[in-house]
Amino acid sequence: MRTEDLTGQLLVATPGLNEGVFERCVMLVLHHGDDGAQAVVLNKPVDATIDTVLDGWEEHVREPQVLFQGGPVQLDSALGVVGVIDPGREVDGVQQLFPGVGVVDLDTPAEQVMPHLTGVRIFAGYAGWVPGQLEGEIRNGSWYVVDRLPDDVFSDEPSTLWRRVLRRQPGRLAFVGLYPDDEDYN
What we know:
- This is YqgE/AlgH family protein.
- It comes from Arsenicicoccus cauae.
- Belongs to the UPF0301 (AlgH) family.
- This protein is of the alpha+beta class.
- Helices cover 14% and strands 31% of the residues.
- It has a domain at 10-77 and 124-185: VC0467-like.
- It has helices at 110-113, 133-139, 150-153, 161-167, 173-176; strands spanning 10-13, 26-33, 36-41, 68-69, 73-84, 94-98, 101-104, 117-129, 143-146.
- Strands 1, 2, 3, 4, 5, 6, 7, 8 and 9 form a 9-stranded mixed sheet that branches.
- Strand 2 (26-33) and strand 3 form a beta hairpin.
- The chain is globular, with a radius of gyration of 16 Å.
């Protein structure tokens, strides 16, 4: 059973989680409920431009203007996370996750929603967990759960996000950000 709602929190991969897209990843939890959880990986850009998978949004994408791998589930689908100018205003086609950030329905015409947004980041796929699975992974030490800062979601330096998020944490967790890329150098 879930103890707290992690929606809007960051999941930061522990050094022991060193496989594929989850290695040193930072994830934004989009939904966490009794039905499971969904998140997107914030720091794994792929070598593909937006217009190769989604037409009409490329000029609105925040730097770096590339597609991000959101996770291993449904890689053939796209999901847009957006910055919202006025968090108190409801925008058709946008579901706000927390103040200033939402998920946009990419079938909505960009010109209809962009006047209300600060930008968008497009993700191919997402990460998903069945009920209780994410909680088990956290208990087993695969993920650190930390608060987000506004710049985390749209970082223009995704390659350094894992270290930066960890280094700002209190206590011992900050030292994990110094963990070497190659364990042999530890």
